[in-house]
Amino acid sequence: MPRILNNKKPISVGRLIIYIVLAIWSVTTIYPFIWVIINSFKSSNEVVRNSFSLPEAFTWENFTNAFSNQNILRSYKNSLIISGSVTIVVMILATMIAFALTRYQFRLKTALLALLSASLMIPVFSTIIPVYKMISQLGWISTYQAVILPQIAGNISFASIVMMGFLRGLPLEMEEAAYMEGAGVTKVFTRIIVPLCRPSLATVAIFCFLWSYNDLFTQKILISRERMFPISNLLEHISSKYGTDYGLMAASVTLIVIPVLIVYIFLQKNIVKGLTAGAIKG
């Protein structure tokens, strides 16, 4: 009778400790969200009375209130317009910037690279006063562009650096062959560079979308009209106006977090792939 080879290696003590620590960390990370979901099906009184047990009777009243009275669908639309526009523009500009800085030599290139890296260290809090003044002078307060333009400026440096790291690892042979066949810069960029950059573009898109979606600071200062509230502003508005309605708060948090979780669950592989592809190829 043939012997079955057992290729499984015994788990070392160090690896077992790592697994235990990661399991505990996962539980402490996931449990708060499960706790919020459970409380979203309770009345406010039941949440106050016992927030750590299952609902005595599941109720959809909190979710009905969030959709009907709080116009959460309108806020979803505003967030989608803002975050979608920011993501698309940043992807286009970052790819073009990275292509220029990694493929061409020109004066002040070193200074531009240094400026791009240094801009990552400038917090948004230090620029909000001049930004607000400019937006106000243009008459854009409580408009989409009032938030879209500052968020594009805030994300462009990170996105460009990620794209540059990826482009440095791409071989030049295909581009050189295309130039020798008579292709122009535009054709090389759109037909070769952009398709090859899909993993890195996915990473940039995910980070930019999530940062824009969760950016309460910029949106709260530059958007004051309730009908223009993105989803983060709406949650802050609900917490200040209905802070004692804990069931409604839990339902609102659940509705706001679910899109982020869906995006991350389906695209998490692209995050790791895009951030490491340049390093592996280089």
Question: Can you put this structure into words, describing what you see?
Answer:
The protein has 282 residues and is an all-alpha fold. It has a domain of 162 residues: MetI-like fold, CATH 1.10.3720. Helices cover 74% and strands 0% of the residues. The chain has 13 helices and no strands. Helix 3 crosses helix 13 and helix 7 runs antiparallel to helix 10. The longest helix has 36 residues. The termini are far apart. The C terminus is likely disordered.
User: Largest sheet at a glance?
Assistant: none
Structural class: mainly alpha
Supply Rg: 24 Å
H/E topology pattern:
HHHHHHHHHHHHH
Using the 3D structure, state the CATH architecture of the domain at 76-226 and 271-281. Answer: Orthogonal Bundle
State the shape.
globular
The CATH class designation of the domain at 76-226 and 271-281 is Mainly Alpha
Helix segment tally:
13
Features:
282 residues, mainly alpha, MetI-like fold, 13 helices, 74% helix, disordered C terminus
Which secondary structure elements does this structure contain, and how are they paired or packed?
Blueprint: H1 13-40, H2 44-49, H3 61-68, H4 72-103, H5 109-118, H6 128-137, H7 144-168, H8 173-180, H9 185-196, H10 198-214, H11 216-222, H12 231-241, H13 246-281
Helix pairs in contact: 1-13, 3-13, 4-7, 4-10, 4-12, 7-10, 7-13, 8-9, 10-13, 12-13
